[in-house]
Write a structure and sequence with these properties.
Helix content is 85%, strand content 0%. It is mainly α. It has a domain of 43 residues. The radius of gyration is 28 Å and the shape is elongated. The termini are far apart.
Length: 68
């Protein structure tokens, strides 16, 4: 393991660069969370619309049966 680690190149960053990198990762994390929440919200809205449509169709079918 140490032989492998001995051949690995290492880079050092100034504190300012490290801060910018950390900020970039934080922004990426927030963007991913926002996309995830948007997908969940969109899925929930689609499920609600489907349930409402099915309920409306069921009511229409019940009304047609009652009229017959």
């Amino acid at each position: 393991m140490y032989a492998e680690l001995g051949t690995v190149e290492v880079g050092f960053f100034s504190p300012d660069q490290e801060e910018k990198i950390a900020k970039g990762f934080e922004e990426l994390k927030l963007a991913k969370e926002a996309r995830r929440e948007a997908r969940i919200s969109q899925s929930t809205n689609q499920l609600d619309e489907t349930a409402e449509r099915e309920q409306t169709q069921g009511s229409t079918n019940d009304l047609k049966k009652a009229q017959q």
